[in-house]
Amino acid sequence: MTDRAIIPPGTHAPIAPFSPGMMADNVIYVSGTLAFDANNDVVHQGDAAGQTRHILETIKRVLETAGSSLADVTFNSIFITDWANYAAVNKVYAEYFPGEKPARYCIQCGLVKPACLVEIASIAHKRS
User: ∠ at Cα 16 (40, 89), nearest 5°?
Assistant: First the structure.
């Protein structure tokens, strides 16, 4: 098995000891992604749709750095702080996954910073 960290150019230092993504045997694991700017400040505060879009764009960059795309995503883990944001998250999510949808789960929980409303982690299988 060949493992390698996936770090898109210009990626800021994470707030904890992890890589944005890891690839092992053409499977890409994207770490839990939050709506952070380059200073690890939360963007789109109070806007679950804006945070979801920012997160999915970040995940897209990680996958593209690994030579993959959102079309290769097979599973997403979604964490939200309030079920009231579920519809807004799903509306944006459907834009990024327009065809067959990846398997997923979604839970309500607390996140690392109070202004974070959404976190998403992904698994993709890179096509040869």
Answer: 60
Which of 31, 54, 51 is closest to 124 using CA atoms? Answer: 31
Considering only CA atoms, which of 1, 3, 108, 8 is closest in space to residue 68?
8
The residue type of 36 is F
What pLDDT, on a 0 to 100 scale, did the predictor assign at position 11? 83
Question: What is the model's pLDDT at position 12?
Answer: 78
* Integer angstrom CA distances of residue 87 from 90, 93, 100: 5, 10, 19
Share of the chain above pLDDT 90, in %: 84
Distance of CA 53 to the CA centre of its chain: 10
